[in-house]
Specification:
Blueprint: H1 8-26, E1 33-37, H2 43-50, E2 54-59, H3 62-74, E3 79-83, E4 96-102, H4 111-121, E5 122-133, H5 137-153, H6 168-175, E6 181-193, H7 196-206, H8 208-219, H9 223-237, E7 244-256
Length: about 260
Amino acid sequence: MEWSQGTYEEIADQLLPAAEVAVGQAAPSKGDRVIDVGCGTGNAALLAAERGATVTGVDPAERLLEVAAAEAARRGLEAKFVVGEAASIPAPDASADIVMSVFGAIFAPDPRAAAEEMTRVLDPGGRMLLTAWVPDGAISRAVRLTRQVVSEIQGEPPAVPPFPWHEREALEELFEPHGLYLSLGEHRLSFTADSAEAFLEHGEQNHPLSIAARPILEKAGRHEDVRAGLLRLYEEANEDPEGFRVTSSYVIAELRRP
């Protein structure tokens, strides 16, 4: 998926509370070297820079990096934003005291390559913090529905389940060969809007997944059916009878050497 499509900064605003929790746990201080992998529009990177850290944000989407750099300049923060990805980080070995990825590394096509590369840039005495969604709840089901129908239209086989970045055993198997050991904690993030319809419209107008899927669904005559299915998912999961609220669970994995 091309993350430069749509207006991802609008979606990133909804994820800011999770970045605040992750950066709070990482607790970067003045002089700490921080690399934010899959930084997007800079939620975590800018929070770390506010604490005085020396920050590099890495992302494959150049437009999102431009948004992050502009926001850093507007807030008078020192942060560098460069093109790269979890499996190809443009930084020397052992150049970060903290490696962070807030819902970024989870999209890496090759999790093992990403784990190796993120470990490569981590200082031996440093720590790594990764956030990952727990794949349940309305939003997760909505994403799966959209992707499933798009795959059917395009004649693709069923998608291989993604790497379970939220599972302890999978993370231990991924990182223990690199000498990193894991602590894992679960958190929750609520998404709100005036109504289920308003939440769906916001995603349709801004989220890269929705922007990319719509022409495919419309050409196949499936857009309205899928839209009705998404709205039904959101309405059934709504936790706020006076408006709209759904809650998603996520984990923060902290990895460091013993």
